[in-house]
């Protein structure tokens, strides 16, 4: 794939090609742990990919072969969250905003995981629509070991994915699980040799790009709606309005208003 790099970022790389956007956390010296700046940049990049009408699928990954993401950067963890030169001395937990953004993005997001997906990095792959793992991938949570926990998507979306007993085990014991175990548990969609990771992920992306974008959008919304409660329904309802706007029936209402006449909905069926 002939990736075209764009944007000025410190901690991430943004690339596009053939309807795909690839967003890479680029802090390999810390196993791609994130700091607040990383997350500000990731949010900007996901927003770009969402707004770009050429982009139909987003691939989310980490630089190098050792890690997808090792969660919050513990070396810059302050007493009230993660702190760097962009946070004005106030600690942040702004990975939570990125989780919501990935869920709400109407385009499929594929996590492409080589090496560690650990802690808050593990939660990020759980929030993605699909996960393709290399055979060297390692999955797990560390919260109770390092003094943290994610009681949001990190807990109940994980439970929805692998079941409650396994979600409890993953969080309570803080073990690491290999790619084959993750596959058996339904935590990932496929496992491939490390050297074939991008090829396989791009293949999945290309298959998605052949499908109806609106159907994919509605399915993502539908599958998220139950877990996301009122917020999920709000998004799904918004998509229903989008599709209604595209109908002649809705356009008759708009046109009548503009033409200062009574709307005539009589030609539209009262569907059983
Ligand atoms: O839980 C949350 C949140 C919850 C709610 C709301 C917001 C949240 C935001 C964040 C988080 C979290 O992510 S908490 C969990 C944070 N992450 C971790 O506890 C994982 C820490 N890392 C490790 O356990 C290990 O590094 C490893 C199992 C991933 C890999 O071990 P390995 O192969 O032995 O490599 P290691 O030598 O440990 O790591 C290579 C380098 O990367 C080291 O650098 P060095 O000290 O030698 O200079 C290591 O310190 C660094 N590194 C790795 N992970 C992190 C890190 N540095 C900072 N933060 C890291 N997370």
Explain the overall architecture.
Keywords: Lyase, Menaquinone biosynthesis. InterPro entries: ClpP/crotonase-like_dom_sf, DHNA-CoA_synthase_MenB, Enoyl-CoA_hyd/isom_CS, Enoyl-CoA_hydra/iso, Enoyl-CoA_hydra_C. Converts o-succinylbenzoyl-CoA (OSB-CoA) to 1,4-dihydroxy-2-naphthoyl-CoA (DHNA-CoA). By secondary structure, the protein is of the alpha/beta class. It has ten helices and eleven strands. Strands 1-2-3-4-6-8-11 form a seven-stranded mixed sheet, with helices on both faces. A four-stranded mixed sheet has the order 5-7-9-10. Strand 2 and strand 3 form a beta hairpin. Helix 1 runs parallel beside helix 2, helix 3 packs across helix 5 and helix 5 crosses helix 6. The longest helix is centred in the last third of the chain and has 33 residues. The radius of gyration is 21 Å and the shape is globular. The protein starts with a strand and ends in a 14-residue tail after the last helix. The mean pLDDT is 98. The structure holds 1-hydroxy-2-naphthoyl-CoA. 1-hydroxy-2-naphthoyl-CoA binds next to helix 2, strand 7 and helix 4.
Q: How many beta-strand elements?
A: 11
N→C terminal distance:
49 Å
Task: Name the poorly predicted regions.
Answer: none
- Assign an overall shape: globular
Q: H/E order of the elements?
A: EEEHEEHEEHEEHHHEHEHHH
Helix/strand class: alpha/beta
Number of helices: 10
Widest sheet: strand ordering: 1-2-3-4-6-8-11
* DSSP helix fraction: 40-55%
